[in-house]
Amino acid sequence: MLAALRVRNYRLFASGQIVSNVGTWMQRIAQDWLVLELSGYDPVALGVAASLQFLPTLFLTLWAGVLADRIDKRKLLMVVQAGMALCALALGLLDVGGIVQLWHVYLLCLVFGVFTAFDPPVRQSFVGEMVGREHLANAVALNSSTFNLARVVGPAIAGLMIVWTGTGWVFLVNAVTTLAVIYGLFRMNPAELHRTAVTTSRRGQLMAGLRYVRGRPDIIAVLVLVFCVSTFAFTFFTTLAIAAANVFHRDADGYGLLSTLLAVGSFAGALLAVRRSTRRKPGLGLLVGAGFLFGLFEVIAGLMPTYLAFGLALIPCGLAMMTFMNTANSTIQLSTAPEMRGRVMALYMLVFIGGNPVGAPMTGWMAAEFGGRSPFIIGGAVAVLSTVVCGWVLARRGGIQVRSRLPWVRRPLVARTPELAHVD
């Protein structure tokens, strides 16, 4: 289960990520709470902040993938992480100094979003360079495990820190933890990386990546499903804060606890993904089934009558969500040629995150108009419907083999298209 950790470069990367991810989750909690406080607990303002943070993804992520295939990924990651640390430092100093205003948060969300538009495609494609194809699925699953382990710890610490010290010091802590990633990248041995030939600078590289994806129906199928589910159902950064404050009337520590309970389920899902990575390749059947269950559990959570019942319902929701995310990520990476991985992962991250500028304000509007429970119920219902429709299309029209790992689908559908037969 820990095969990828035998690689020294990956150990350095993973250890830095654990520390940095704790700070990242602390900042997410503190930022949401700060926006609520500055806006008078307006859910629309929370949606605007999330939208601004994800908006640069729409315009920059594909070009980040081109750079990832053209420039040294390790050095590029160091620059990106340094920029993210400076954003956290600036917000922390403004907050601690008592001069922070809502427009400051909006502006720094936008600047931070520029760096985060570059980070995921570069970081995701860099995993293959660190461990090679043999341990790629295991490394992807371990990344999710460390990310969600931090997600268990970070929100709980942030909730307590906000109550004791205010939000400003949380941002400053995140700025310091980001240095752990930069240090790990600096300590790596470049000679041990599994690098492919760097793509030379020439016109048309972005279009070449898009043409590559257009000729791969298996990749397109995953991208369509990820877009539908992530845009309408992956809205927890906005919806949990709204539920804590406006539905259950809790303070920051109550919001942090809800995020931690969601993370407990996500961490369990990540551990299951680590175990699966040693036994079988990810499959489209698992992807469709996990998306369906995630939407169903989200609807159930939205209907829970009490704070405790709502929090406990987030655990299976997080497990299904992480199974869906890990399966999609691993399927894309293992199905992509190494020289195209940066551009394809950029497109994947664009699809995964790019719907947030639409989904986040829409979530805030739904919460303001129909109540804090509505984003969970409506978003979960959309996820269920999307997976049912996409799964039916994949099975009946796409000719893709979908052998479900889930008990209610027992009959495998045989792939009729040779290039898709390797996707289970």
From TrEMBL:
Q: Does the keyword Nuclease apply?
A: no
Q: Which Pfam families match?
A: MFS_3
Kindly list the places in or outside the cell where this protein is found, as annotated in its UniProt entry.
Answer: Cell membrane
Output the Gene Ontology terms for molecular function. transmembrane transporter activity
List the record's Gene Ontology CC terms alphabetically.
Answer: plasma membrane
Positions of the Major facilitator superfamily (MFS) profile domain: 1-398
Q: Which residues cross the membrane?
A: 44-64, 169-186, 219-248, 254-274, 283-301, 307-325, 346-368, 374-395
Q: Which InterPro entries match?
A: MFS_dom, MFS_trans_sf, TM_effector
Mind listing the UniProt keywords for this protein, alphabetically? Answer: Cell membrane, Membrane, Transmembrane, Transmembrane helix, Transport
- The main location is membrane
Tagged with keyword Transmembrane: yes
Report how it sits in the membrane.
Multi-pass membrane protein
Q: What's the name of the protein? A: MFS family permease
Query: What species is given as this protein's source?
Result: Actinophytocola algeriensis
